[in-house]
Design a protein that fits this description.
about 250 residues
């Protein structure tokens, strides 16, 4: 191809400036006005990065991704179309690995969501959250600041990550459900954390039901020792309790 009176096999044009070679930093222009970075050849351009909110798809910039593909990207630059994937901590969970990142999006794709793990499903843009971060609570695959105003749910608050608004449940030895066979769960640090073997997340709050690690259950919290006026009952690893003296 001809550039400034000279022939070149290809030219890397980024931000309307040539990137390498004897013509580096001189002016250039991609054929597609929505392409920010392209490789120019005599047989046509191959775009590498799109701008203006357009998506990169097979070397071209498109306004929307083809059916069956997911949209990725929140800002006006570096959006792309891809096979559906999971985004975790800014990385695509795909094989083989790719050299670009990803972002989870808020509803309407207007901002980056406080989401640690999200799915970029076909026809979507990463708004389907699986696990929130930043102290946010997951509810119906969206992240929210609290569970206030929601009926029939409790705040599951194991830490800054993994908070949820969900139906009341029992957490038994690290798993929910009556027999501990469901999803992984944690008892909150405020009631004993790992020292609590079974805890209840109920409308009245989170409370421990049975302690472990030689800790004593006292008013729904695991403690190391029972206070004066109360009797330490039990001697095993689990099931110790504080009871009023003389009961």
């Amino acid at each position: 191809m001809l550039q400034s009176g000279r022939c070149f096999v290809s030219i890397s044009c980024k931000g309307r400036r040539i990137q390498t070679g004897s013509q580096a930093d001189t002016g250039c222009r991609c054929l597609d006005e929505h392409c920010h970075w392209c490789n120019r050849r005599a047989d046509g351009d191959t775009c590498r990065v799109c701008r203006d909110g357009f998506y990169l798809s097979d070397g071209d910039c498109v306004e929307t991704c083809p059916a069956g593909l997911a949209s990725s990207g929140v800002g006006l630059f570096k959006r792309r179309c891809a096979e559906p994937f999971t985004c975790q901590s800014g990385r695509l969970i795909v094989e083989p690995q790719v050299n670009y990142g990803c972002k989870c999006a808020t509803e309407g794709n207007t901002a980056i969501a406080a989401c640690h793990v999200c799915e970029h499903r076909a026809g979507e843009y990463g708004q389907h959250c699986l696990r929130c971060n930043g102290g946010q609570f997951l509810y119906e695959n969206r992240c929210r600041a609290s569970c206030n105003g929601l009926d029939g749910v409790v705040s599951y608050n194991p830490g800054s990550y993994g908070r949820e608004c969900r139906a009341p449940f029992m957490c038994t030895d690290g798993f929910d459900g009556p027999d501990g066979s469901g999803d992984a769960c944690k008892c909150s640090r405020s009631i004993g954390g790992q020292d609590c073997l079974i805890c209840a997340y109920a409308s009245v709050g989170n409370r421990c039901v049975r302690c472990t690690n030689e800790k004593y259950l006292r008013y729904g919290i695991c403690v190391a020792n029972c206070p004066a006026g109360e009797e330490a009952v039990g001697s095993g690893l689990d099931g110790r309790e504080c009871q009023l003296a003389g009961r």
